Write the structure tokens for this entry.
Amino acid sequence: MARVLLFGRLADVAGWRERDIPARSLADLRGRLAADDPALFEALQGPAVRTAVDQQLVSLDVDLRPDSEVAFLPPMSGG
């Protein structure tokens, strides 16, 4: 199972910050999230939302290991 982490407004939309979800790839994980929570899936499609797999930013679909950590990162602001 992939450990999924949501930060900032993404966690607010989903109502959770961390969850274990069975998935074989990032595309599979996104499909599961879309089926479970369309509002979260829509929020994840934002152009500035970044995805990290095992603490490495990714921009394409990647395979996930059973112990992978996937973090969805909203746009950051601050100064």
Residues 7 and 73 are 6 Å apart (CA to CA). Helices lie at 9-14, 26-36, 38-44.
